[in-house]
Design a protein that fits this description.
single chain, 243 residues, mainly alpha, arginine biosynthesis bifunctional protein fold, YutG-like, two-stranded parallel sheet, two-stranded parallel ribbon
Length: 243
């Protein structure tokens, strides 16, 4: 990142510019929900980040560049626009990217969702595994383009992160990760997804998945496991209803 200032910032002001630029870069990454490829958490930068500040040194000295100053405002605005534009150009990551991509960035893959659904279907259906997998994949892809499903799933993802950080009042991170019986909002999201996709039968099917937690449902957190359970249960119920 190279910041060119038409002005005369002092040395301490240039340090302030670096601070303000770093904050703005972090805001840009948060606004785009950019995830670390290692931890899958919101990232704040990369291992090769570098900032250069240069100025013409003309005019009266500028002493401050915090966010409340004119210089700080201009630096922050330029950095946000520049970082967001560079990410869109180089990585093809935009705010409106697909939910499938957003889930993939969190380590939740479509293939894993398909395997999770099939794990229980095999016990109750004469349909071949391959055919069921293909149908389920197609149904999940359709479901994940629905605005309401996207809202449910992204709400679950946000609640997952808040719970893990202790941001749900009266629920410590340790208690949250144990998925206590007093927490039913996660099941409510799963039920809502399954019911939205396939009505009452979808909701009943979700309860079976929630109880047995096949596949990836046993490895992910309280809210996302129920969101995935609602998705696969609702999608499979629709498939079986068409047989």
């Amino acid at each position: 990142m190279i910041l060119l200032i038409e002005g005369n910032p002092t040395e301490s002001c240039m340090v302030d510019v670096v601070k303000t630029a770093t904050e703005a870069k972090t805001v840009a990454l948060r606004n785009l929900d950019i995830r670390s490829r290692f931890s899958k958490e919101i990232c704040t930068g990369t291992t090769t980040d570098a900032i250069v500040v240069a100025s013409t040194s003309r005019g009266r000295p500028i002493e401050y560049a915090g966010t409340a100053t004119t210089l700080g405002y201009l630096v922050g605005r330029a950095v946000r626009i520049g970082v967001e534009g560079a990410i869109a150009k180089e990585e093809q990551i935009t705010p409106g990217r697909s939910l499938l991509q957003r889930l993939r960035e969190r380590g939740i893959l479509l293939d894993d969702m398909v395997r999770t659904g099939i794990e229980l279907l095999i016990q109750s259906s004469a349909m071949s595994v391959r055919k069921a997998s293909d149908l389920l994949r197609a149904e999940l892809e359709r479901a994940l383009t629905d605005t309401n499903i996207q809202a449910f799933v992204l709400a679950a993802a946000r609640l997952e992160e808040d719970g893990d950080r202790g941001l749900i009042p009266s629920l410590s991170p340790k208690d949250f990760r144990s998925d206590p019986v007093t927490l039913v909002a996660d099941e409510s999201i799963g039920l809502a997804i399954a019911n939205y996709l396939a009505g009452t039968w979808g909701a009943y099917n979700f309860l079976r998945y929630d109880r047995l937690k096949p596949g990836m449902m046993s490895r992910i957190g309280p809210f996302m496991d129920d969101a995935v359970g609602g998705l696969v249960a609702g999608a499979l119920t629709k498939i079986m209803a068409r047989k």
